[in-house]
Each structure stands twice: as C-alpha cells, then as structure tokens.
Amino acid sequence: MKKIKLVMVGNGMAGVRTLEELLKLAPDMYDITVFGAEPHGNYNRIMLSPVLSGEQTIKDIMLNDVDWYRDNGITLHLNKKINRIDRKNRVVYAEDGTSAEYDRMILATGSNPFILPVPGNDLDGVIGFRDIHDVDAMIDASGKHKHAVVIGGGLLGLEAANGLMLRGMDVTVIHIGEWLMERQLDRTAARLLQKSLEEKGLRFLLQKQTELLVGNDGRVAGVRFKDGSEIPADLVVMAVGIRPNTALAESAGIHCNRGIVVNDTMQTYDPRIYAIGECVSHRGTSYGLVAPLFEMAKVCANHLAEMGIGRYVGSVTSTKLKVTGIDLFSAGNFGGGGQTEDIVLSDPVGGVYKKLVIQDNKLVGACLYGDTVDSAWYFQLLREGRNVSDIRDHLMFGQSNLGDGGHAGQNKAAAMTDEMEVCGCNGVCKGDIVKAIKEKGLFTLDDVKKHTKAASSCGSCSGLVEQILSSTLGGDYSATPAVKPVCGCTERTHDEVRAAIRDHKLLSIPDTMKFLEWRTPDGCATCRPALNYYLISTWPGEARDDAQSRFVNERVHANIQKDGTYSVVPRMWGGKTTAADLRRIADVAD
Ligand SMILES: Cc1cc2nc3c(=O)[nH]c(=O)nc-3n(C[C@H](O)[C@H](O)[C@H](O)COP(=O)(O)OP(=O)(O)OC[C@H]3O[C@@H](n4cnc5c(N)ncnc54)[C@H](O)[C@@H]3O)c2cc1C
Predict the structure, then answer these.
(1) CA 355 to CA 363: how far, in whole Å?
(2) Distance between CA 279 and CA 245 in Å, rounded?
(3) What is this structure's pTM?
(4) How confident is the model at residue 480 (pLDDT cuts 50, 70, 90)?
(5) Order of strands across the sheet with 352-359?
(6) 43: left (phi over 0), alpha (psi -120 to 50) or beta
C-alpha cells in the first residue's frame, strides 16, 4: 500500500515526540520527512541549563540522534529552514531550495526568545537563551569576558544566570518586577530564593527598567537604566519571555492569533496541517513547558494514526527550577487572595516555606520552597480537584503523614496510587513505571529512564523514581546501590574506583580509565569530576589535577567564596544530629 506523505517542519521536542507516538501506533502508515533549522538531532532543550552550568554535556542531552531517524525510515534534513509552504500544490520549500511534497503536515516550529526593543539590542554579545548555539556563545563569552547581565528574573533567566556564574562570570540579574519569578512564586518564597542565590554569588537589581545597551567597538559594554544608572556588561542574555514562532504559518495564510490556532485534535484551519508545541494557540493559550506539549503530541499522533479517539482539552502546569541545591515548586493559583484560604508554613531560618491555597474545599494552588518532596501529590490533588476537607488538618505535612491507617510510615512512593503522575515533564504515572519495572525486569534509575522516559528531562523526580524502584523491588532493590556503577561509562562502583586508585597508585584520569577499562574514551560529565576528586584527594600533590573537572566540583558541590574558602551546608535529616555525626563533619572539615 502506498504510504501517506507526512512532512514535519521543526525538529524539536514536541514534534519528535509526536513522531515517536505515531510510530508506536502506526509504524507503516507514513512516509515521513523532517526539516530542522538547527544542525542537530533532537535534543532535550530543557537540559541546556545543566549544559551551561557544566553539569551535563550536549552528548548527554541528545534524545534522538541521526541514527534514530534512519532506523525508523525518516528522511531528515538538518540545517534547513522551511521558508515557504505552497498549500495549493502541497509542497514545502527550504531556504536552499530543497522541497518536499506532503499529504499531511505537522508544524512544530517552537518559539523565539523575545528581544527587548531597546537601542543596542543588535550589538555583539547580546543573545537569547534558546538553543545549543546560544549555550555555545555563552560558554565562549565566559572564557573571554567577566561581566554578564541577564535581563529577566524568571525561570530561564535564573538558570542562565546560575550557569554563567558557575562558569566563573560576575552575574547581575535585572528584573522589572518587585520580586523574582513573580508568575510562579509569591513574595515570601521569592525572597528566600533570592537570598539563596545571593549566597551562591548572584547579584540582583529589581524594579529596574532597561533603557539601552551601551556599545564599544560593536560589542555590548554596559546596560543603562531608565533611572540614569549604568552597569558594565560584556554579555547580555535576554530572558524576558518567548513568542510563538508563527512566521511560516502566517506567510502560508494559516490562521494565527499570537500562536497558530488549533482545535482539540491539533489541526489548524487547514485540516491537512497540524500544529503542535510552543508555536500553537489552543483555546487562546500558548504553553512554554514540555508537559502540555507532550499531551498535545499524544492527541496529534492519535489523530494522524486515524484512531480518532482523543482530544486535547488544555493543561494545568507546574514549575520547578533547575538550579542544583534549590528546591522550588509552584502550581495553580499559588497567590491566593479573593475567595481562597491559605495554609502557610514558614521557617525562614530553615529556608522552608510552603503555601497551599484552598478554595471550595479543593486545593487550587501550591507554592513550595526548600521542601518539595510532596509536590507530585499536591499537583495530583490539584489536577483532580479532589475534595480535601477530610485531610485538611494534615495536608501541609504531606502524603506520608496522612495517618489514614494505611500510609503512615511508608515512603512517598508506596503511598502513591498508580494514576498519580511522577514525571510531569514526560507525563509518566506511577503505574507506568511499576509496570515497566515488573514486565521488563528493570533494576536501576537509568533503566527506568530509558524505558519510560520518567526522570529523563528535568530530572527532579529522580528521587521519587528511586523510591518506586525500591518499593516495587523490595529486597532486590536494596542490593542495587551496592553494584551501582559510577555512570554509564563503566561498570565499576565508586568504591571500586577509589580502591583501584589507592591500590595501584593511579595518578591521572586517563590512567584510571585505561586501568579500569572505561567504555568511553573521555568519560562524561558525571565520571570525570568524580575521578578527579578521588585522584587528588588520594594522592594530593602527586595526582594530575584536571582543571575543568575540579571547576565543576568546586562550583557545583561546594559554595566557593570570593576569597577562595568554601562554605558547605551539611544536611541533617529531620534536624536531628548526634555527637558522632558532628565529629564526622569535623573530620570532613579537616
Ligand atoms: C534553557 C531552557 C530551559 C527550559 N527548561 C524547561 C523546564 O525545566 N521544564 C519545561 O517543561 N520546559 C522547559 N523549557 C521549555 C521547553 O524546552 C520547550 O517548551 C520545548 O522545547 C518546546 O518544544 P517545541 O517542539 O515546541 O519547540 P522547540 O523545542 O524549540 O523546537 C522547535 C524547532 O523548530 C525549528 N524551526 C523553527 N522554524 C523552523 C522552520 N521554518 N524550518 C525548520 N525548522 C524550524 C527550531 O529551530 C527548533 O529546533 C526550557 C527551555 C529552555 C530554552
């Protein structure tokens, strides 16, 4: 049978997820061609922040490399931007003249970063934070320049600022609002966040309006504000919002209203053309987080597979910040006010703040800072609109303290129902994970990531996934950590690596990798810093220090101060400690 021609424009997260879903449902139905303006396969855009901060590499965040397209019979055109759709003859054209005919099309063109329309915004060194190219430019600038300014104190701006700081730059965040992340946090939570980030070394200027960017010899040199003040800047990152990328659709006469307007089956006003992801406007809303886009992807694939069951009806979203050491969660109407009642727990000294917003006996919003272990549960209650009057007294203390006769004392995972969502980014529920663990014989977090995609995007649910592994496998799982390798580059555990370094007097990363038969030639962002730490702590003064690995360790795991000393905050679970624990901390300090 002749296959239907499907062309996809945009090779990003939403589009490729749609193809993955489609291939599961109807692997032989379409002859698929993909055009991507970027020169890369499909990567996890979310994880650009850890790449910028040096905690991950581009290789780590690839979701589908070019082999995947080949293996699935997909024709892939990288580095080819489509600039014309001929809807009458059903052909798309790329800038270089490459063309492809279609019977059906998916537009998945994502968003563009909004660049403030101020004088100087076209100077060298002024960029957005959207793709690998931007991250490369930031890493390059951090090696040559000192002063970075990030305009925008939202999620993206703070992750950019943190990454640049970890790369050694002096970073100032400019924010027009009264407090950071005002769309996700209330004033109290934002203050705690700002304090933690200031302790790490970031500077903030709030309620500042940028007037212009000062240039010097074609490159940005400073930022001037409306109040006349000015600060130096060799790099300016604009993180003030995104705009759905509708240019191509508009030029083809497809109805757009801020985003490309779609119905509940993700079809545009031209029913042969679907649109998916950040570029769309669905029921008047455009989304900027992956969870809703993946829900759209399922529906779109379903319809393309002609299964016709499934409508996208909109999503409730939640937010987390990917800055190591900062736990933050927000969802729904976190601000409260009006007809709502707020339950608040505030411990500024302990750095914990929790606010739950209730309306008509339902949880309608949550804002958590410092302790987010119950975020999945709160999010579930919120999305289900469950009546919480019977558990209201205990709501603040989390799911495992319900005292409902069944769950107290068990870990969070055991208390979760199968329908509860674990990984918001990829829409994976507890039941999916348990099923995969049992049916596919999974034992490690990496296995679960690979088979279910849970914990493979922002990674903040990794702890919960480990708990599910533990509660599903019971005794079997407790054996797992003992043989857990350092990372995918080796089968050796941390203890085995340390022993080899000590017993065989290994003095460099390459020697250690060779001796222990590492699987990869250069290791990865997980094993290199670990090896470097073991080497220089075992053979101080003798082992060869790897500057980049040391840098990652110092910036990520210890809070290095300007004078070269470190501050380390020991964690004491439940606030309890013993004389022996304190002695151990003193040993570490020595
Ligand atoms: C640094 C960063 C951190 C983030 N963190 C989070 C997070 O923690 N949690 C979360 O949920 N979301 C996060 N997001 C948002 C998330 O990455 C996006 O919601 C998601 O990537 C959008 O997917 P998409 O497919 O719609 O667009 P994209 O992934 O942007 O893909 C669109 C692709 O289409 C290509 N394209 C555009 N026009 C054309 C054309 N004419 N021809 C060919 N190709 C074209 C673009 O080059 C791009 O590759 C983050 C985003 C960034 C940038």
Answers:
(1) 11
(2) 5
(3) 0.79
(4) very low
(5) 318-320, 328-332, 362-369, 352-359, 341-347
(6) beta
Residue 131 CA, closest ligand 1 atom number:
53
Give the mean pLDDT of 241-255: 98
What average pLDDT does the chain have? Answer: 89
Ligand 1 residue neighbourhood (C-beta within 6 Å): 9-15, 35-38, 45-46, 48-49, 81-82, 108-110, 129-130, 156, 245, 248, 277-278, 288-291, 293, 322, 425, 458
What is the tens place of the pLDDT at every residue in 488-498? 788 888 889 99
Relative to beta strand 235-238, strand 126-127 is parallel
Measured distance CA(198)–CA(310) in Å, rounded: 47
Looking at the predicted structure, is the pLDDT value of residue 317 above 70? yes
Q: What is the DSSP string of 541-582?
A: TTSPP-HHHHHHIIIIISEE-TTS-EE-----GGG---HHHH
Write down the residue that tokens 């009264």 correspond to.
Answer: 178
First-to-last CA distance in the chain? 73
Q: How far is the CA of 178 from the centre of ligand 1 (A)?
A: 28
Q: What is the pLDDT of residue 486?
A: 83
Pairing of strands 256-257, 273-275: unpaired
Q: How much is the average pLDDT of 115-131?
A: 97
Residue nearest to atom 49 of ligand 1 (CA): 12
Which residues neighbour 49 within 8 Å (Cβ) at sequence distance 6 or greater? 159, 160, 162, 163, 322
What was the pLDDT predicted at 247?
A: 98
Phi, psi of 380, deg, nearest 5: -65, -45
State residue 409's pLDDT score.
Answer: 39
* 373 touches 466 (CB < 8 A): no
131 in Cβ contact with 45 (< 8 Å)? yes
- What is the C-alpha separation between 248 and 7, in angstroms, rounded? 14
- CB-based burial, 498-510: b 16+ in 10 Å, e otherwise: bebbeeeebbbbb
Q: How many CB atoms sit inside 10 A of residue 495's CB?
A: 10
SS (H, E, C) 429-461: EHHHHHHHHHHHCCCCHHHHHHHHCCCCCCCCC
Q: What average pLDDT does this structure show over 395-410?
A: 60
3-state secondary structure of 84: strand
Residue 244 in 3-state DSSP?
A: strand
Tell how far the Cα of 110 is from the centroid of ligand 1, in angstroms.
Answer: 5
Model pLDDT, residue 410 = 46
* Nearest CA owner, ligand 1 atom 29: 12
Percent of the chain with pLDDT over 90: 63
Whose Cα sits closest to atom 30 in ligand 1? Answer: 110
Model confidence at 188: pLDDT above 70: yes
Has residue 476 got a pLDDT over 80?
A: no
CB of 420 closer than 8 Å to CB of 434: no
Closest C-alpha among 315, 323, 326 to residue 372: 326
Q: Where are the alpha helices (DSSP H) in 153-210?
A: 155-166, 187-200
pLDDT score of 201 more than 50: yes
In order of 49, 95, 103, 260, 281, the CA distances from 268 in angstroms are 32, 23, 14, 7, 10
> How far apart, in whole angstroms, are the C-alpha atoms of residue 380 and residue 421?
7
111 CA to centre of ligand 1 in angstroms: 6
- pLDDT given for residue 404 in this prediction: 45
Could you tell me the two tokens for 284?
């008047």
